[in-house]
């Protein structure tokens, strides 16, 4: 039989500090409560969040939409720079902007933070960022969990995940079923790299011998400031659009995340149709060209990894395109027409001597295709 430990082993001695967790909750309470409207019952600290959904009685056939996601290796940059109050907005954006593409309004969000050691101020910064993202999205933060995993994660390690639920009237669900030949494809500017492709970006920065504190003239700021720019949250602007007369012409929305523009756009193009996208219609931000140059990254790999300057795409009827563009611009969301929907057999075959790329069958969706053609203005100059 093994001998007993000569010293008592407490939970704190094992690496879990419950008092630090309580302090983190106190530091974040005000920010979380600021996301609560009258529909949220109870306060911070309950076992589960309560949301009054009486308003759903006004729906003819309400459908619940749900999504869950994380931030990925962008967290490594936040850790390196010890800046943690922007990661939360990234998390919210990755979740709620997947919900709004169905035409759904996000109602409530929860978060989960796993860490090697609870540092109350760091946890509170992360949650404040989540609360700010929820405020921007018009979504209540109704619960969360912080788990301390000593021995499994290093003290400075952490990861974040979140989930949200929203609602949409069944007759107003957006998607490939509404898309038709002749529809116009509208691309909306991203705020930068957003929250995808950071494994590639970090590898390029490392290989180029650069640091996150390196000031880059083309960016007008340091690499770290550029890399930690929060992901744009499109939810409120898109919900306003969908509720307007112009919104009647919106057939589908596409959140440009992992896989890039073509792979995600293909998910909302129905079988038998194809999207022709012309790169000449927009210029990606300087960070995309810098990553390409510093790492000699092939265009096809860039496009399959990064958003290339467009974080959200709308597929709209041709007669509504001008009105949709005008409303997005008035909301302060730079946008432009980047292509059209055609019968798939009308798409030209990619020319082997060019950068033409044809993408289909992505993300397990058996749908249409996306043809990328042309060259971004000033690209490689």
UniProtKB/TrEMBL annotation:
PurM-like C-terminal domain ranges (all copies): 180-345
One GO cellular component from the entry? Answer: cytosol
Catalysed reaction(s) here are:
2-formamido-N(1)-(5-O-phospho-beta-D-ribosyl)acetamidine + ATP = 5-amino-1-(5-phospho-beta-D-ribosyl)imidazole + ADP + phosphate + H(+)
Q: Which Pfam families match?
A: AIRS, AIRS_C
Give the pathway annotation: Purine metabolism; IMP biosynthesis via de novo pathway; 5-amino-1-(5-phospho-D-ribosyl)imidazole from N(2)-formyl-N(1)-(5-phospho-D-ribosyl)glycinamide: step 2/2
Q: What is its main location?
A: cytoplasm
- Gene3D superfamilies hit by this protein: PurM-like C-terminal domain, PurM-like, N-terminal domain
Please state where this protein is localized: Cytoplasm
- Which Enzyme Commission number(s) are listed? 6.3.3.1
Which UniProt keywords are given for this protein, alphabetically ordered?
ATP-binding, Cytoplasm, Ligase, Nucleotide-binding, Purine biosynthesis
Would I find Membrane among this entry's keywords?
no
Per the UniProt entry, what are the Gene Ontology biological process annotations, in alphabetical order? 'de novo' IMP biosynthetic process; adenine biosynthetic process
> From the UniProt record, which GO molecular function terms apply?
ATP binding; phosphoribosylamine-glycine ligase activity; phosphoribosylformylglycinamidine cyclo-ligase activity
Q: Does the keyword Ligase apply?
A: yes
Residues in domain PurM-like N-terminal? 63-168
Per the similarity annotation, which family is this? Belongs to the AIR synthase family.
**Stated name of the protein:** Phosphoribosylformylglycinamidine cyclo-ligase
Native organism: Brachybacterium phenoliresistens
The coding gene here is purM
């Amino acid at each position: 039989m093994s001998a007993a430990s000569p010293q008592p082993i407490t939970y704190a001695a094992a690496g879990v500090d419950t008092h630090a967790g309580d302090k983190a909750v106190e530091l974040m309470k005000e920010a979380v409560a600021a996301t609560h409207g009258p529909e949220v019952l109870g306060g911070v600290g309950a076992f589960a969040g309560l949301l009054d959904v009486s308003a759903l009685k006004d729906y003819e056939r309400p459908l619940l939409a749900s999504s869950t996601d994380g931030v990925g290796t962008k967290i490594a940059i936040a850790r390196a720079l010890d800046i943690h109050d922007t990661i939360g907005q990234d998390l919210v954006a990755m979740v709620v902007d997947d919900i709004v593409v169905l035409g759904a309004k996000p109602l409530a969000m929860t978060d989960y933070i796993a860490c090697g050691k609870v540092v109350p101020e760091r946890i509170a910064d992360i949650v404040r960022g989540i609360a700010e993202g929820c405020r921007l999205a018009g979504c209540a933060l109704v619960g969360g969990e912080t788990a301390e995993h000593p021995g499994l994660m290093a003290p400075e390690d952490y990861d974040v995940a979140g989930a949200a639920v929203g609602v949409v009237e069944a007759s107003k669900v957006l998607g490939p079923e509404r898309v038709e030949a002749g529809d116009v494809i509208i691309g909306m500017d991203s705020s930068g790299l957003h929250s995808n492709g950071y494994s590639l970006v970090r590898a390029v920065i490392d290989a180029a011998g650069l640091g996150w504190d390196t000031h880059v003239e083309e960016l007008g700021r340091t690499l770290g400031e550029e890399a930690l720019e929060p992901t744009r949250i499109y939810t409120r602007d898109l919900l306003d659009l969908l509720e307007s007369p112009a919104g009647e012409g919106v057939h589908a929305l596409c959140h440009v995340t992992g896989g890039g523009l073509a792979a995600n756009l293909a998910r909302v193009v129905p079988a038998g149709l194809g999207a022709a996208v012309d790169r000449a219609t927009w210029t990606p931000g300087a960070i995309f060209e810098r990553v390409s140059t510093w790492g000699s990254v092939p265009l096809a790999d860039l496009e399959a990894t990064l958003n290339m300057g467009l974080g959200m795409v709308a597929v709209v009827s041709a007669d509504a395109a001008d009105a949709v563009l005008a409303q997005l611009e008035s909301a302060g969301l730079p946008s432009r027409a980047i292509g059209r929907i055609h019968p798939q057999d009308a798409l030209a075959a990619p020319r082997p001597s060019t950068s033409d790329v044809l993408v289909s069958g992505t993300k397990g969706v058996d749908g249409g295709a996306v043809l990328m053609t042309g060259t971004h203005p000033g690209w490689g100059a």
